[in-house]
Amino acid sequence: MKIAIAGATGLVGKELTKYLTSKGHEVSAIRREGSPEAPYPQVTPDYLEQFDALINLAGENIAAGRWTDEQKKKILDSRVNTTRALVTALNQTKNKPTVFINTSAIGIYGNRGADLINEESSAGKGFLADVCRAWEAEANKAQRQNLRVAIARFGVVLDPKGGALNKMLLPFKMGAGGILGDGRQYMSWIGMHDLVRAIEYILETDSLIGPINMTAPNPATNQDFTSALGHVLHRPTIFPAPAFVLNIVLGQMAQEMLLEGSRVMPDQLTSKGFKFDYPNLENALKHEIEKS
């Protein structure tokens, strides 16, 4: 397949490009024209028509800094504006692409405790849920004959080169790792290895449409995650981070990203035959850390 990717220079974009290329696909990065600060890619229908598939991974890093009003606007606008620009061009194409994958996040479900969540579950409350609703609303405006639209709702992506796992590794390696808050909040995760495989599976499986949870089938509590990471690194995990300290340091971001969570299942993927290579957390952590 010929595949265009927006956000190809990000953590997932780099790994996905490498993986798809290794599988014989032809991948092109959609770049922002003009200055690096351009708010979204400038693409035309003629440009998109050369591709079989379009994948949108673009968006401001949600963990780049404290959620000030300005940072919240960047997080929202980077997703909505990029998606809107791509969809506007996509709807004007005639023959190709035939599949559009737009990313979202399981943050759309909000804080749901231990309840089992799947793609049919309702949206929750909070800033991340609001961002995901607006983001997905723009993606769902992609309506053209013979176009399949899939919304890939990412969980916590395990990759030591970036994201949550990257931030955890140093304190854990120093023996200063521990649970966050009470440790009972769920972390619905997926290893980078299985994430890129799942994206290719969506590209090649015509029956996968609409919201798709990109999470492994065994979500873990923060306490279980902490124990598994400590075991993989052969380090103690005895230094908890109290909720009040995290809230003081990080504010709302700590509450929604670290102290709350949801127990999300990948029902769409598994029901359509996708097999995870690393469905077990400790094995996934070991694989991702050792391959880096």
Summarize the topology:
Elements: E1 2-6, H1 11-22, E2 26-30, H2 45-48, E3 53-56, H3 69-90, E4 99-105, E5 116-117, H4 127-139, E6 148-154, E7 156-158, H5 163-173, E8 186-187, E9 189-191, H6 192-204, E10 210-214, E11 220-221, H7 222-233, H8 243-250, H9 252-259, E12 263-264, H10 267-271, H11 281-291
What does this structure look like?
By secondary structure, the protein is α/β, with parallel strands linked by helices. It has one domain (2-291): Rossmann fold (3-Layer(aba) Sandwich). The chain contains eleven helices and twelve strands. It has helices at residues 11-22, 45-48, 69-90, 127-139, 163-173, 192-204, 222-233, 243-250, 252-259, 267-271, 281-291, and strands at 2-6, 26-30, 53-56, 99-105, 116-117, 148-154, 156-158, 186-187, 189-191, 210-214, 220-221, 263-264. A six-stranded parallel beta sheet has the order 2-1-3-4-6-10, with helices on both faces. It has a two-stranded parallel ribbon with strand order 5-12. The chain has a two-stranded parallel sheet with strand order 7-9. The protein is globular, with a radius of gyration of 19 Å. The model has no long low-confidence stretch (mean pLDDT 94).
